[in-house]
Amino acid sequence: MSKRDPNNKYWDEALETMPREELEKKQLEDLKEIVKFAYDNAPYYKRSFDEAGVKPEDIHTLADISKFPFINKTTQRDTQGVGSFLGELCAVPEEDVVFISTSSGSTGVPTMSPFTKQDFDEFQDTESRWFWQVGMRPTDRYVHALNFSLYVGGPDVIGAQNLGALCIWGGTLPSERLLFILQTYQPTIIWTSPSYAWQLGEKAKKAGIDPKKDLSIKKIIVAGELGGSIDATRKAIEDLWGAEVYDFYGLSDIFGACAAHCEYHDGLHIAENHILVETVDIHTGEVLLAGEVGELVFTTLRKHARPLIRFRTGDIGWIDNTPCKCGRTHGRIHISGRKDDMFIVSAVNVFPSDIEAVIRDLDGITGEYLIRVFERDFTCKYSVEVEKNSDNPDSDEAIAQRTSDALKARIGVKPYEVKVHPDGGLDTRSEHKSRRIIDERKLDYSI
Ligand SMILES: [Zn+2]
User: Which of 11, 20, 164, 218 is in Cβ range 3.0-4.6 Å of 138 for a Cys bridge?
Assistant: First the structure.
């Protein structure tokens, strides 16, 4: 149980406000240790470092990590079950492992993430830090409305309990049950996906419950989709609930939330004591400077069960190491989207999140959308489908034109077509995680 002063804005002030020079010194010590630990104990790293002609002793500065080979999801899949069921990336004997989570496997074979007791405890301490950062205190009532089955985000609730909040392990309840809990127990904080936060608020209104007046939710944590970092989406959810929305970012390969918004919502502070961040060119793998957009590559500095050395996350974004107004010195990541979701139209990189930002900002439409990516004459194109509000008197043509103009202005390339449906005409409303992009391309665009 936390004995912290609730008026202190930091969970771990010394760590969170550590001067960067000191933070980087600590990162370097941990980096040297974990790379050596990985080399000595995980068969995969021994082999791959030897093949690349690098040794743990080659690390003298943080930048020296760039001499080491990358790994990615495929490396994880290929090494799982080899040697032992934990696989060749695992660096501890099975008896030291106390927990494994596994990914959904929606894009291939599920990958597992093992934790030692210390890994797990440090993971939960990091979660407590994020919860405290968004303002959770022992007086709060908290609903964890995330999947508990196998998913690494489930145990994050323990971080809230360790902080001292009253926790309700909601999981993925049907919305009627969840609304009943929100009405009966009047919790103050909830964590769910951004699309579900939106759907749940709408469902409440349809059931005659005003989320602003009849419920006590003051803060909504969102993760799993980009919405929380898209200003227009975040504002729409905030207006619906009369609550503040905080975006969290996690990787099932590492742990629940690895990065989180502070009260300024300007990028997500990443736990740099646990993760060394690099940004690399998506094509060449060349290391980019802070502030340049590329693929985020993470090296875990403290996870001993399965260290990840230069893991290509598949997420595109940039890192900002400039001081944040909140006083925290850990860098902030800004995510544009998944590499797999990005498409290129007339030499412009387009992310579904950019399209969402435009759609959510336009008046007279519901904010629901569907993106189709396809080819015409061997060129990549995209079309967008939207829903018009039932009280909008404008013609479909006028709405399509306005949407198309706004997309062109923001993204730089016009959609091939904008289709307008009536309110409720799109089948994109789903519980918890929505599918809003359909890729109909036949050519190979792998990058
Ligand atoms: Zn901050």
Answer: 164
For residue 36, report the phi and psi dihedrals to the nearest 5 degrees: -65, -40
CA of 130 to the centre of ligand 1 (A): 11
Q: Return d(Cα 277, Cα 270) in angstroms, integer.
A: 9
Going from the Cα of 194 to the center of ligand 1, the distance in angstroms, rounded, reads 21
**Do 248 and 377 share a domain, yes or no?**
no
Grade residue 1 by pLDDT with cuts at 50, 70 and 90: very low
The domain containing residue 60 runs over which residues? 1-339
Return the SS3 of 52. Answer: helix
* pLDDT over threshold 80, residue 428: no
Contacts (Cβ under 8 Å, ≥6 apart) of 166: 140, 141, 142, 187
pLDDT category at 35 given cuts 50, 70, 90 is very high
Is the pTM higher than 0.90? no
Distance 73 CA to ligand 1 centre (A): 30
Q: Are residues 279 and 145 in the same domain?
A: yes
And the tokens for 82? 């080899």
Residues 282 and 397 placed together within one structural domain of the fold? no
Residue 265 CA to ligand 1 center (angstroms) comes to: 7
Higher-pLDDT residue of 150, 262: 262
Q: In angstroms, what is the span from residue 19 Cα to ligand 1's centroid?
A: 14
Say which residue the tokens 């990541």 belong to.
333
